[in-house]
Amino acid sequence: MTGSDGGPAGETRSHPGGMAAGVGCPHPSFKGILVVLLAAKKLVIVAVIAIAAFINDEIEWDRWTLNIGVRVEDIQREFDDLLKGEITANDETVVLPGAGVFFQWSDAWAIFGGIHGGFSPAAPATGNEVDSEESVNYEYGLRYSEKDLYVEAIGFFSDYSNLIGRCRVSDSVCQPGEEFSAGDVQIAGAELNVSYVHDFVAGWTLPIGFVYTYTESAFQHSFLSDFPIRT
């Protein structure tokens, strides 16, 4: 991949004319963001261009429904530090497939499952220092629906090849928005959703619902970040 000016993706380069250089957006897009940030001792321009396309197909046969698709997205990110005279550019193309299956076991019971690719881009200012967030997500469940009662039980598992750690505004030991790569992470859990609607003779209805979610996660190896330890 190349940067927006034809240079290597993720490179940091100097302005040929110092602060006089601007940010160009030579490619058409469906979505674009241009942000100018003015703060104490900082003058930066952040530009993001994203072009996305997807194809999806749903196949029905007897009691089975199969849904398959793929999404392709090209993201061009540029962080222009006008005071330092540097531009950090990072261009990235991702392919995210997904598939889901639904089986209507009976009039009231159904089972389903799916597998989908996940992605979250790193911030433009990170360049190649932080990898984008990528994951494979699985879900599987059982559903009961009859008259006024609805019950759904779902299990899920997300396998992150890289999880992004971000500094929040409430964190006093780092700059808000700073990011680092946290590496492999696995997240698993289950969700129970129960709803019931009671009908009164007078025509009133009383909806009742209960939702419970359990989640656990674990880092798969140690990692280091430049964020200082809070004491």
Radius of gyration: 24 Å
Structural class: mainly beta
Coarse shape: elongated
Q: Give helix and strand order, one letter per element, not per position.
A: EEEEEEEEEEEE
* Count of β-strands: 12
Report the β-strand fraction as a percent range.
Answer: over 45%
The percent range for helix content is: under 10%
Q: For the report, how would you describe the main beta sheet?
A: 10 strands, antiparallel
Structural overview:
The protein is mostly beta strands and 231 residues long. 0% of the residues lie in helices and 62% in strands. The strands form 2 sheets. Strands 1, 2, 3, 4, 5, 6, 7, 8, 11 and 12 form a 10-stranded antiparallel sheet that branches. It is elongated and about 75 Å long. The two termini are 42 Å apart. The N terminus is likely disordered.
Short recap of the structure:
The chain has 231 residues and is mostly beta strands. The protein is 0% helix and 62% strand. The chain is elongated and about 75 Å long.
What is the element layout, followed by pairings?
Elements: E1 12-14, E2 31-39, E3 42-61, E4 64-81, E5 86-103, E6 109-120, E7 133-146, E8 149-162, E9 164-166, E10 179-181, E11 185-199, E12 205-219
Antiparallel strand pairs: 1-5, 2-3, 3-4, 4-5, 5-6, 6-7, 7-8, 8-11, 9-10, 11-12
